[in-house]
Amino acid sequence: MGLFSPNLAGMGPGGPVVPEPKGGFRKFIQIMSRDTFSLLGAGFLTGVSALVYIACMFLAIFSHGMIYMLVGGPIGGMIFMPQLVGLCDTIMRAMRNEHPGDWWQSYRMAWKRNLRPSLIFGLIAGTLFGFQLFMMTHAGGAGNDMFLRIAMYAGIFVATAIAKWTVLQIAVVDLPIGRLLLNSIVLSSNHPIKTLVLTVLEIVYWLFIVVAYPFSLLFYVLFNFWLTMLITVLTLYKPMNETFGIEKAVEEQKEREKQRRKSEGK
User: Fold this and answer.
1) Computed over its alpha carbons, how large is the radius of gyration of the chain?
2) Can you tell me the distance from the alpha carbon of 266 to that of 261, in angstroms, rounded to the nearest whole number?
3) Which of 98, 92, 132 is nearest to 114 (CA)?
4) Helix extents (H) in 21-145
5) Cβ 140 vs Cβ 100: under 8 Å
6) Rounded distance, CA 168 to CA 219, Å?
């Protein structure tokens, strides 16, 4: 059959049409190759905005100064979260094959639309994770503290799982923050295996970044938050679409926009 058979893109005369990948490794490769600049661009903005939070937590942990966590946790979370939600929106657009050349325009629109819930959730998540990390690194090492440490690890695990679902929701639905958090708990319970695997992956990824420092700096610059976010969206997009009707809402919005342009044209 030769090296170039079957037709890789279904582009040759009479060549077979390769169906659009809906998920899995083929979709991962497609997005990685097709949307490289949008991934790197949105990821870079997210990685830079996280530096305030990272610096404050670094000072809090190594200087044993809780004031850095109390101030830097909520402020750093509010600075960081809008960019993380913008990154999530960018990847979800790639999942729906919305890949215009100017990704920046779509990113800005999504950033403005989701700014308020992003700031609120950034305040909550930044404070919560900051407190958890500070307490975990300052817990005693004696055997009678083992139960406390297990409780802390479990708390970080649960908070990470809920945060994943919440960020995805902020990018696609307009709901009060309390409803978003409740939905995240329900969705985590409805999809326990996916939630478990993704949460473990997220924690292991950031443990690697911390433990391998400073050698992991290059890894952070290149992949920062977008790599794990891409895997998360690839895994959870289907249940999110089934729950919230994302693609149906997008099509309805496009139809409304088309009708509006037609009426303006008349």
Assistant:
1) 21
2) 9
3) 92
4) 24-34, 36-49, 51-63, 66-95, 103-113, 115-137
5) no
6) 24
Establish how many alpha carbons lie within 13 A of residue 77's alpha carbon, considering only the half-sphere containing its beta carbon: 23
CA nearest to 83, candidates 103, 111, 55: 111
Lookup: tokens for 6: 């079957």
Distance of CA 24 to the CA centre of its chain: 17
How far apart (Å, rounded) are the C-alpha atoms in residues 94 and 102? 13
- What number of other Cβ atoms are within 10 A of residue 86's Cβ? 26
Contact 111, 86 (CB under 8 A): yes
Contacting residues for 156 by C-beta, under 8 A, at least 6 apart? 129, 132, 133, 136, 203
Question: What distance in Å separates the CA atoms of residue 100 and residue 90, rounded to the nearest whole number?
Answer: 11
Alpha-carbon distance of 72 to 67, in angstroms, equals 8
Predicted local confidence at residue 235, as pLDDT: 93
Residue found under tokens 């440490």: 149
Q: What is the DSSP string of 76-91?
A: HHHHHHHHHHHHHHHH
Tally helices (H) and strands (E) across the chain.
12, 0
Q: What is the pLDDT of residues 38-82, one digit of tens each?
A: 899 999 999 999 999 999 998 988 888 888 889 989 999 999 999
